[in-house]
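Reminder to self: keep the SMILES exactly as supplied, no canonicalising. Ligand is zinc ion.
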Amino acid sequence: MNQTPPRRRLKRKVRISLLMIAFAIPTLFMSFTVVKSYFADEKAMSKEMINQETPKPEVPVTTPEEQPTEEAPDEKEEIVEPPTGKVVYLTFDDGPSHLTKDFLDVLEANDVLATFFMQGTNLQKENLQDSVKRATENGHYVGAHSMTHDYKTLYKDFQFVAEMRETLDLIRDITGTEPNLVRAPYGSAPGLNSEQARNQIVENELKLWDWTIDSEDWSLAKNPSQIVTNIKNSTKREQEVILMHEKEQTLAVLPEIIEFYKSQGYQFAVYHESYHFELNFQGDDRL
Ligand SMILES: [Zn+2]
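Structure tokens returned for the bound complex:
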């Protein structure tokens, strides 16, 4: 008989045992994992079933972990650093319009942010709402410029606050932002000369901005280069807020206006509630 020598037999035995161990460990581990996940599923299922069976309490129960802590960051109260040095705010009134998307293109191409004051009757036009949404998504600010833009209705019939609130609601519905800055059609003077009218604005927690430079762009359809001249001649403050409108002639010279402020060392800023500053012809520091 071909007998295997004892030493080789021993060696083979050791090899077989090692092989068996090598297989056994992963197999055991795998079965453990399978069993564990099975029980986990069971547990989850029974939990779910319990949840289905238990009627939900009408008053939500707050566990201690869910209670808001003082450290919890409040998104609404995020602090944004105000811009410093020479700062220019480009502002565009009376939109949205069929030109809004073109204004956004120019601003985007020049990496500049701006502040828009939009009118309710235009915001209601569904075909313009994508541009409004895009404006806030691109980082621009969209504030309110009344529903009707009508002097008599706003200032003589005291519809100013009601119209601004309605316009702000529209902006909120379209963009999801919650602006509180408004621009008075024709400026706050003389329309808001009455302190009573301004009290209403304060009580409704609205802020109001006029401007430091009137480009008079709306009247310069036939002479767009005069818009640039007007702006250049009036620029003298550390902080300028330029009144412009969504007009063809304004769009045409916008790159030139941006170029001018860049050459003068201004940085472009966009309005933000956290660094609001007083800018109204009434000199009312509550607005
Ligand atoms: Zn206007």
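Points to follow up:
The chain has two domains: 1-55, 84-275.
Residues 31-73 have pLDDT under 50 and may be disordered.
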